[in-house]
Design brief:
GO terms for molecular function: zinc ion binding. The chain has a domain of 75 residues. The protein is built from 9 helices and 4 strands. The chain has a 4-stranded antiparallel sheet with strand order 1-2-3-4. It is elongated and about 145 Å long. It starts with a helix and ends in a 14-residue tail after the last helix.
Length: 310
Amino acid sequence: MTRLYTKREGIQKYAGKLCPSIQDRLEKLKVESKAFSDTLAGSFLYEVGSQYERHVVDLVKKTCSCRSWDLNGIPCKHAITAIYTNIETPEDYTHSCYFKETYMEIYKKVLPPMPGQSEWAETGQPAPLAPHIYKPPGRPPKQRKKASDEPRNPYKASRQNRPVRCGKCKKEGHNSRGCKAGITGETPWQRRQRLQREKAVREGVPAPRSAPQPAPQPPSQQPTQTSNMMSATQPSSSQQGNQPRPSHKRAGWFSSSQPEFHTPRETWDTLPSSSQPSHASGSTGGVRTRGQLAAQRPPKMNPVGGKRKE
């Protein structure tokens, strides 16, 4: 009631032809229309365009090819250019629902005041119940619906005009939920190899080739070949004294080369006969004395770790 009275008194003091909000919107469109030029094509028919766009304006039908004037009844920036060329004002081509007289006609009636509940007449009808509130399914929206000409948020990335790419097969036109790559029976290893080849083709790099696997041999030839390899790898007792000890390296887990066999360390029995001390002695008749045995015996170690003092 108070709002209607305020609106009615305020519009009576306003001197414009259109409502204040519509007049402000029209003034902005007048400024934007300066970048357009028009060409007369017929009676009240104009071709309005700029460096980036071109539209057709008909002042008799009050239409424009951009469809903005048809939707809201307010002349667009293209129509304002044609209206000024025709030496008229845009306010005359605005829809009548935005006029001041229409606004005053809506708010001219006064709502009658209502007395208190104690003065109400009794009708004998049941008391009214609260209406049933229908709650629609899903989460309620939190963002408001924006206007068509409202600018977007410049700090938020938009997904418009961007192709949809699948996360499985990396192809455009569908997403991973509707991908049919797994229906063909492709294993994960085959899919990984295919994706590497496709990536190499896109980047212009040759695809990596897997190392060739050795051909399997029949079981009848394997023991013979293994014994030959062991005999060729292990040197004789006469060659071990002259050749340096080979370094033993472990083959990697993924190495395709044959593993190196273990070579035993030198022992007393494998030493050549020239390096072993002779057991014959002139005075003892081939029997070694206690001093000779002590000289050949290795020195004992103290519990601390050093050699025993002689």
